[in-house]
Amino acid sequence: MPALRDDYTKAPLEPRERALLDYAAKLTRKPGAMREADLIPLRDAGLSDRDILDANQVVAYFAYVNRVADGLGVALEEHMSGNSD
């Protein structure tokens, strides 16, 4: 889905998906700005505390792996970079 890849905020998403992506985006871009209030939309969308923990760990893991790869100068394979539509 190109809209999801290009700008998830313009993609037709279910409320649960939107809440998860909003949370992931903020945690990725502004981790120091995260507050307990950021969990409310996730809970309102029906996620349990375990679901939220799982989402947090997945986002944190990808951030870690990307920083390791960037720090070592690892290049993405073409099919992973989004350039092979």
Structure characteristics:
5 helices, 85 residues, AhpD-like, mainly alpha
Describe this structure in words.
With 85 residues, this protein is mainly α. The protein has a single domain (2-81), classed as AhpD-like. Helices cover 61% and strands 0% of the residues. The protein has helices spanning 2-6, 15-29, 40-44, 49-71, 78-81. Helix 2 packs across helix 4 (49-71).
In short:
With 85 residues, the chain is an all-alpha fold. The protein contains five helices and no strands.
Largest sheet: none
Query: How much strand?
Result: under 5%
Name the CATH superfamily assignment. AhpD-like
CATH class: Mainly Alpha
CATH topology name, in short, is AhpD-like
* Overall tally of domains: 1
Task: Tell me the structural class.
Answer: mainly alpha
Q: Total strand count, please?
A: 0
List the helices and strands and how they pair.
Elements lengths: L1 H5 L8 H15 L10 H5 L4 H23 L6 H4 L4
Helix pairs in contact: 2-4
